[in-house]
Design brief:
heterodimer, A: mainly alpha, 15 helices, 79% helix, globular, B: alpha/beta, six-stranded mixed β-sheet, 41% helix
Chain lengths: 345, 353
C-alpha cells in the first residue's frame, strides 16, 4: 500500500478513488521496473517519506493525475493549436525566410575579392579607425586562408539579417516601453523569460511549427533570443535621459515627436548602441546552436566536430567563431565610442 | 512700460500628493503645511499666491529652497498644473488652453532659462541657441543666423560650433540665455539662472541681464535664493516662504519696511549702502524751493555708497536730488546714516545698552 492512503481513507474518498478510470498516462520506466521486480512492501520509515507529489498521490488514489499526464497535456495542447498557429505564423514569418535566403545567396555568390573589401570599408566607415580595419582584414584573411571563408560568410549573413531585424523591432518596442509604465511592467517578464530560457528550448516548439528545412526556423529562434538586450537598453536609455533636458524641451513647446527624435533618441543612442552590440553577440551565440536545426555557417563545423568526434575540425571552427565574435564586438564598440565621444557632458 | 499687467496669478494653490483636491479643502480650512503632511501625507507646495507682473519689468521671486519658488515659476507655462487658481497671460486664462494653444504659448510667448542650463549635449552651441526657433519650424539657415546674432550679443562670438561640454558654466548659461532670447518671446522665465555660477561670473551675468533689459524691455520672471541678486535686478520683489507670499513690493520699500521677522532676518545681512538708492530715503521737494545750503547734486538712482564716498564721510552735508527733469528732493546725510542701520539691529542695540 502506498504512503498517502491514509489521507484518502481519512477524507472518506476511498470509494471515489477506486471507482475505476485509471490514468491514461504512459507508464514510466520506474513503474515498469517496480511491476516486474515486485520488490514487495518494505518497512516504511519517516526517512523514506515521499513528497506528496502527483505521482505519490496517484499511488494511493488512481483518480489523481500523474505528472506524465501534465506533460502529455501540454504536448497535446500545443499540437492542438499547432495548425492554427502555423496558419497565422507561416505567412507572417515567410519574409524572414526570403530575407535569410537572399542574404545567404548574396554572401555566398559574391566573389571574395569583392566581399572582403566591402566588409573592410564598412568596418572603416563604422569605426573610422584604420587599425581596426587592418585587424579585421587580417582576421578575415586568416579565416579565408584556412578555407573557412564560406562558413564565416554564411554566419555573417545570418547575423546581419537577424541583428537588423532585432533592431528594427527592438528599438520601437523599447521606445514604447519607455513611454508607458504599464507596457513596461507587462513586457519585462516576457523579456526575462526569453533571456533565461535555455537556447535549446526555443527550438523545440519551432521544430513542430515549421519545417526544419526552412531558414525562418532558426531565424525566429535567433531573433527571439537576441532581441532582448536592444529592447531593454533602448527602454533604459530613454528613461535615463536627463530630466532637466526633457523639461527644457517641454518648456520650448516641443511636440512629442520632436522630443523623441530630437532629444530622447540621440541622447539614448549610447545605450541603444550598447544594446545593439549585445544583440549581435547573442545572435552569434545562437547561430552556432541553431546549426542543430540546419542553420549553415561555422556552427555546422562545430556540430560535425561533436557528432563525429573530429576534434580538430571542432576546435578550429570554434576559433573561427571567436574571431568573428571579436570582429563584430570591436566594430560595434568602436562605433559606440564614436557616439559617446560626440556627447560628453 | 510697467503699466499693463502681463502675467497675473490669482489665488493659486498647489498640493502634491495622490488626492490633491481633497487635501486642498483642508488647506482652505486653514490647515498648516506640517499638519497636512503629518495627517494626510500631502505636501503643500503653494498657498494662495497672488502676484501681478507688469510688462517690461523684472519680477524677482525670492525664497529659500523648499519655499516653492521653482514650483511657482513652472505654473506660468504649465510645466506644473495648479491644484486651484488662475494664471492669466495678456488677460487670457492659460489654464483652459488646449494642447495646441499651450504649445504656442511655450513656443512664442514664454521662454525659459534653467538653473542647470539644460542644454542639449549632442548639439552645437549655435544649434542649441536656435532650438527655440527650430521647434517652430523655422528653416535651418534662418534660425542659425538668428541664433548666431544672439550668441554674439551675449558675448559668445566664435563659439558657434563648439559643443556645450567644451564651455565653462558661465558660458553655458550664456548659451541658455541666447537660446531664450532667440525665441523673441516677450516673457522670459529664469529659474535660478545664475545660482550655479561662481560669484564673479554671477555678477557679470547680472550686469549682462540688466544691460539686455534696458534694450529689450522683456517681462522677466527671475527666481533666486540670493537677496543681493534679487535687490540688484528686481523691479518688483516677491518673497516666498513655505509656499506663501510673505511680502511683495518695490525692493527698496521692502528693505526699509520689512513686515515679517523672516524678512528682517534676511535684510539684516545686506550691505544697505550698496543696495539702497537716494530716491528711497530723500525728502521730496515741496514746491520748487531748492534749499540753499546744499553741498551739491546727486542723482535719484545713485546708491548711498556713492553719496557717502562723495561726502567724504561728513554727516553735516546735504544734497539736492535730481532726476532727468530737474530737482525732486533733498537728502540729509544724517537720514542717510540712519537708513544704513536695519530696524532689527537698532532694536537689538537698544536692548543692549
Amino acid at each position: 500500500m502506498a504512503t498517502y492512503d491514509f489521507v484518502f481513507n481519512g477524507l472518506g474518498l476511498r470509494d471515489w478513488c477506486d471507482s475505476g478510470g485509471a490514468s491514461s498516462a504512459p507508464m514510466s520506466m520506474a513503474d515498469l521496473l517496480a511491476q516486474s521486480g515486485g520488490e514487495g512492501d518494505k518497512e516504511a520509515s519517516l526517512w523514506d517519506l515521499p513528497f506528496p507529489s502527483l505521482d505519490a498521490l496517484n499511488d494511493s488514489c488512481e483518480k489523481i493525475i500523474q505528472t506524465r499526464d501534465l506533460t502529455k497535456g501540454v504536448e497535446q495542447g500545443f499540437l492542438a493549436i499547432k495548425d492554427a498557429l502555423r496558419f497565422v505564423l507561416d505567412p507572417l514569418t515567410q519574409p524572414l525566410s526570403w530575407l535569410l535566403e537572399f542574404a545567404l545567396t548574396v554572401f555566398e555568390t559574391a566573389p571574395w575579392w569583392m566581399m572582403l573589401p566591402i566588409l573592410i570599408i564598412i568596418v572603416y566607415l563604422a569605426s573610422k579607425s584604420v587599425r581596426l580595419a587592418v585587424f579585421v582584414a587580417v582576421c578575415l584573411a586568416f579565416l579565408a586562408g584556412i578555407d573557412h571563408y564560406e562558413y564565416a560568410m554564411q554566419t555573417l549573413a545570418i547575423i546581419f539579417v537577424c541583428a537588423f531585424l532585432c533592431v528594427l523591432f527592438g528599438v520601437p518596442i523599447g521606445i514604447a516601453m519607455s513611454r508607458n509604465d504599464t507596457l513596461q511592467r507587462m513586457t519585462i517578464p516576457v523579456l526575462d523569460m526569453l533571456q533565461t530560457l535555455p537556447p535549446f528550448v526555443y527550438l523545440i516548439p519551432l521544430i513542430f511549427l515549421f519545417s526544419v528545412t526552412e531558414p525562418k526556423l532558426y531565424g525566429i529562434a535567433i531573433i527571439l533570443y537576441a532581441i532582448v538586450p536592444v529592447v531593454r537598453l533602448t527602454d533604459l536609455g530613454i528613461r535615463l535621459v536627463d530630466s532637466d533636458v526633457i523639461e527644457a524641451a517641454d518648456s520650448f513647446g516641443m511636440t512629442d515627436r520632436q522630443k523623441l527624435f530630437g532629444v530622447q533618441i540621440p541622447l539614448a543612442l549610447p545605450n541603444i548602441m550598447a544594446g545593439v552590440n549585445q544583440t549581435i553577440m547573442m545572435s552569434l551565440a545562437m547561430v552556432v546552436i541553431a546549426s542543430l536545426v540546419s542553420a549553415p555557417g561555422l556552427g555546422v563545423l562545430v556540430l560535425r566536430g561533436i557528432r563525429n568526434l573530429e576534434l580538430g575540425v571542432g576546435l578550429i571552427s570554434g576559433l573561427g567563431i571567436v574571431l568573428v565574435a571579436v570582429i563584430l564586438d570591436r566594430v560595434t564598440k568602436a562605433a559606440l565610442n564614436r557616439v559617446n565621444a560626440s556627447q560628453k557632458h | 512700460m510697467g503699466d499693463t499687467i502681463k502675467i497675473s496669478i490669482r489665488n493659486l494653490y498647489k498640493v502634491f500628493g495622490e488626492q490633491p483636491q481633497a487635501a486642498l479643502e483642508h488647506v482652505m480650512a486653514g490647515m498648516s503645511k506640517t499638519e497636512l503632511l503629518e495627517k494626510h501625507r500631502h505636501v503643500l507646495g503653494l498657498r494662495d499666491i497672488n502676484v501681478d507682473m507688469h510688462d517690461g519689468e523684472i519680477t524677482v521671486i525670492m525664497g529659500l529652497s523648499g519655499s516653492g519658488k521653482s514650483t511657482l515659476i513652472r505654473h506660468f507655462n504649465r510645466l506644473i498644473e495648479p491644484t486651484a487658481g488662475e494664471v492669466t497671460v495678456d488677460d487670457k486664462n492659460v489654464l483652459i488652453y488646449g494642447e495646441e494653444e499651450l504649445r504656442n504659448l511655450r513656443r512664442s510667448v514664454m521662454s525659459m532659462v534653467f538653473q542647470r542650463f539644460a542644454l542639449f549635449p549632442h548639439r552645437t552651441v549655435v544649434e542649441n541657441a536656435g532650438t527655440t526657433l527650430k521647434v517652430r519650424g523655422v528653416s535651418k539657415n534662418e534660425y542659425l543666423a538668428e541664433a548666431h546674432q544672439w550668441l554674439d550679443r551675449v558675448g559668445l562670438k566664435g563659439f558657434d560650433n563648439h559643443y556645450p561640454h567644451q564651455l565653462s558654466g558661465g558660458m553655458q548659461q550664456r548659451v541658455g540665455i541666447a537660446r531664450a532670447l532667440t525665441s523673441n518671446s516677450p516673457i522670459m522665465l529664469m529659474d535660478e539662472a545664475f545660482s550655479a555660477l561662481d560669484p564673479l561670473i554671477r555678477t557679470d551675468m547680472q550686469d549682462l541681464l540688466l544691460e539686455l533689459q534696458t534694450e529689450l524691455h522683456k517681462t522677466i520672471v527671475f527666481i533666486t535664493h540670493d537677496l543681493d541678486e534679487a535687490l540688484k535686478i528686481a523691479d518688483h520683489l516677491v518673497i516666498l516662504k513655505d509656499g506663501f507670499i510673505v511680502q511683495q513690493g518695490e525692493p527698496q520699500y521692502i528693505l526699509l519696511n520689512p513686515n515679517d521677522p523672516y524678512i528682517e532676518d534676511f535684510v539684516s545681512d545686506i550691505n544697505r549702502a550698496r543696495v539702497l538708492r537716494v530716491r528711497s530715503i530723500m525728502i521730496p521737494l515741496e514746491g520748487d524751493t531748492v534749499p540753499p545750503e546744499a553741498h551739491g547734486e546727486v542723482r535719484d538712482n545713485d546708491t548711498l555708497e556713492s553719496v557717502i564716498a562723495r561726502s567724504g564721510g561728513d554727516t553735516s552735508h546735504s544734497y539736492v536730488v535730481i532726476d532727468d527733469n530737474g530737482p525732486v528732493g533733498t537728502l540729509e546725510m544724517t537720514s542717510l546714516i540712519r537708513a544704513l542701520v536695519p530696524r532689527v539691529a537698532s532694536e537689538a542695540g537698544a536692548r543692549k545698552y
